[in-house]
Design brief:
Layout: H1 11-25, H2 47-51, E1 56-61, E2 67-74, E3 78-85, E4 91-94, E5 100-107, E6 112-119, E7 122-131, E8 139-143, E9 147-151, E10 161-164, E11 176-179, H3 199-202, E12 212-215, E13 223-229, E14 235-242, E15 245-252, E16 255-258, E17 267-271, E18 277-281, E19 292-296, E20 302-307, E21 316-320, E22 327-333, E23 337-341, H4 344-356, E24 361-367, E25 373-379, E26 386-391, E27 396-402, E28 415-421, E29 427-433, E30 446-448, H5 464-471, E31 475-479, H6 499-516, E32 524-529, H7 531-542, E33 549-553, H8 559-568, H9 575-583, H10 590-595, E34 609-614, H11 623-634, E35 639-644, H12 654-671
Parallel strand pairs: 30-31, 30-32, 32-33, 33-34, 34-35
Antiparallel strand pairs: 1-2, 2-3, 3-4, 5-6, 6-7, 7-8, 9-10, 10-11, 11-12, 13-14, 14-15, 15-16, 17-18, 18-19, 19-20, 21-22, 22-23, 24-25, 25-26, 26-27, 28-29, 29-31
Helix pairs in contact: 8-9
Length: 676
């Protein structure tokens, strides 16, 4: 094969760059987004470069491999649809007007796509369809229902299975349906940047029914939080929550039948290759990580193990054939990214691709149905994703697009995998990014940055927040604490909801790095968002001598208050019952909730705090942050704040994200000065 820089077909990257330059040249915003190259080596990297939306994401081939569809970013941070024909290099784009974005796209066949639209960076506004060559004639399918695509049946691709999860008028589950994408409403969505009116989409609610081919009953016995199709793309399973109890039901002859599966101990990953078969992460085994294995849905009986790591519970997803939906492999995380192929052809293909991109993670992203043209994403801890096509018949490779060409990998820093020991004797992973010039003789200040969730994990790869802080001279520690995915087998089951022990793990990780001598132990900050924001405030409440300051973004500080806010939505969302079951009732356990709610102990905080949040946050009410600010004032704790309108759980708009981290940069610089 030719090397990527020797390929004769590199025009897509060039055309995309020109398109983005043309689109942004007239933009009169506060950022200079015309530049898509790195700044010179002798200039500091602007904060904007770390938080700019990727130029291209979600690339995918149509079934025959003649066209690539992807999401592209134009203007300040608007996400549009791109369709590119490989042979003719013809390009089409489609985008919404104002603060509207396309955030999901999928090929139905070689000529037709469906895609979702969002307003103000919040999903669920509408599902639309469009034809290649006529993107500007996109037509609406379903609006006002928070519609998501469950499956595209391989044998009937123009009849996708969708879940209308939330009727904006009634608040009720709109159910699962098969929709007919052939029927056009007569209303053209007219989303083009050059003109049109968004209301053309929004006034066609009465046309929703025209697209319905088949409806399915909503599963009874609780609130539905997930629907799953079988390998043929037919609705097969529904997952419900009732008073914190999770249940799985199987659709049998048009009726829902409860399955004998304990979802507290089984995590369903998807359907299997055989009818009635599921792929699950199995239950805990004494001294062994949880395995990826098969299960019979009707009986709950476990079957063959597909994959079992020696040190981590399975945490990943399945890769399927684009033609048959047969399971070909699994992509997963442990201390770093991994892939396991169950198909010999794909094992051999992965070896070829790995050899072609030495020093990078090379992930097969998709292919055409013939299996001779593949999309590949490459990345590392210092490089965001770069997308390539690989033609196995012609033995050629071509660049599609560098998703962040303004990032120079040579100026980024390595993410080091380190281990730390918890106070109960377990060894967990953390990631340490050191700034340029750091050494034991020149130890930098440290920013501890615990992840949110808490039931996710930090992973090895390019992290824009860590790289931004490292570029400003800080070491960054990202500890994976108990509750982070991959570690549940190590700890008692109750530890999955033991927030104080999670705090202790972050403390132990921090002290472990101090002991290494790699950082300045007298200049440490803790920064986090969501549950990480909770851990930041917990850190400065419970470890007053460890940190010099804290930053919290959209955090929870009082869990009784959080449970009460979830109670208001208990008939629409499943979280209230789950929290009562797992955390307990605040009225019955006041001491426990006092202990895990750092917002009740602001009087113990002795260091400055920065508080940020969005006024439209539906995950954690902004009142949590406002009450924290009020108490910081009450106890004369120095603080700064950034409360932003029209933002939800975190900052989704580029200008707000850049303002937030510019403010954080100044806050850290002021509070982590060397001691005199």
């Amino acid at each position: 094969m030719r090397r990527p820089d020797q390929s004769p077909v590199l025009e897509l990257a060039t055309v995309l760059a020109l398109s983005i330059l043309v689109t942004t040249s007239a933009f009169a915003g506060k950022f200079d987004l015309k530049r898509i190259t790195p700044v010179p080596d002798n200039e500091p990297i602007p904060a904007m470069d770390f938080f700019r939306p990727l130029l291209l994401s979600q690339p995918q081939l149509n079934p025959s491999g003649t066209h690539i569809a992807a999401l592209i970013t134009v203007a300040e941070d608007q996400h549009q649809l791109l369709v590119f024909e490989l042979k003719t290099q013809k390009m089409e784009t489609l985008g919404g007007i104002g603060d509207k974005d396309i955030y999901y796209v999928k090929w139905l066949n070689d000529q037709r796509l469906i895609f979702n639209l969002a307003a103000k960076k919040r999903s669920g506004l509408g599902l639309l369809a469009a034809e290649v060559g006529q993107l500007d004639r996109a037509y609406p399918l379903v609006q006002y229902y928070g519609t998501s695509v469950i499956a595209i049946p391989p044998k009937n691709r123009l009849r996708p299975l969708v879940w209308n999860r939330y009727d904006f008028e009634t608040g009720q589950d709109g159910g699962v349906a098969v929709i007919n994408t052939d029927i056009k409403t007569g209303k053209v969505a007219n989303l083009g940047v050059a003109g049109g009116n968004w209301s053309d989409l929004m006034d066609v609610r009465d046309n929703n029914e025209k697209h319905i081919v088949d409806r399915f009953p909503v599963a009874s016995g609780g609130l539905t939080y997930w629907n799953l199709a079988d390998r043929e793309g037919k609705l097969a399973y529904s997952f419900t929550a009732n008073k914190g109890e999770l249940a799985m039901q199987q659709l049998v002859e048009g009726q829902w039948k409860k399955c004998p599966v304990d979802l507290d101990h089984i995590d369903v990953q998807g359907c299997g290759d055989a009818p009635g078969q599921l792929v699950v992460v199995g239950p805990r085994q004494e001294g062994k990580p949880r395995a990826l294995q098969l299960m019979d849905a009707a009986t709950g009986q476990l079957g063959d193990v597909l994959l079992q790591d020696q040190a981590y519970d399975f945490d990943g997803w399945l890769y399927r054939s684009p033609v048959t939906q047969e399971i070909l492999g699994a992509i997963f995380e442990r201390n770093g990214p991994r892939v396991a192929w169950f198909n010999e052809d794909y094992k051999n293909l992965q070896k070829i691709i790995d050899g072609f991109f030495p020093g990078l993670v090379a992930r097969i992203y998709g292919s055409n149905e013939a299996g001779n043209l593949f999309l590949v994403a490459t990345f590392s801890d210092r490089q965001p994703s770069i997308y390539y096509w690989v033609d196995l018949e012609k033995h050629t490779v071509g660049l599609i697009k560098n998703s962040a060409p303004w990032i120079d990998p040579k100026r980024m820093q390595s993410m080091n995998i380190v281990k730390f020991k918890t106070r109960d004797g377990r060894h967990l992973d953390a990631y340490l990014t050191l700034p340029a010039g750091a050494s034991k003789t020149n130890p930098p200040p440290l920013v501890v940055m615990p992840h949110g969730g808490p039931w996710v994990r930090d992973t090895w790869g390019f992290d824009s927040h860590a790289q931004f802080l490292a570029s400003r001279g800080y070491a960054v520690l990202q500890p994976n604490y108990r509750g982070s995915t991959g570690y549940n087998w190590m700890f008692p089951e109750e530890d999955e909801w033991d927030f104080r022990k999670m705090h202790d793990d972050v403390t132990d990780a921090t002290k472990s790095i101090i002991a290494s001598g790699l950082i300045d132990g007298g200049r440490i900050a803790i920064v986090g968002g969501s549950f990480g924001g909770y851990l930041a405030i917990s850190g400065v409440v419970n470890e007053p001598a460890l940190y010099r300051c804290a930053v919290t973004i959209a955090g929870v500080f009082d869990y009784e208050m959080q449970i009460q806010s979830e109670k208001y939505d208990q008939y629409e969302l499943p979280y209230y019952g789950r929290m009562i079951r797992k955390l307990g009732d605040p009225k019955k356990n006041p001491e426990k909730f006092a202990a895990i709610s750092p917002g009740r102990h602001v009087d113990k905080i002795r260091v400055p705090v920065f508080v940020a949040g969005g006024k439209e946050d539906r995950t954690v009410e902004i009142q949590q942050s406002k009450r924290l600010i009020s108490d910081l004032e009450k106890y004369h704790v120095p603080y700064e704040k950034l409360i932003v309108s029209e933002e939800g759980h975190g900052m989704a708009h580029l200008d707000n994200e850049v303002e937030l981290y510019t403010r954080i940069e100044a806050f850290l610089a002021k509070n982590l000065l060397p001691k005199q």
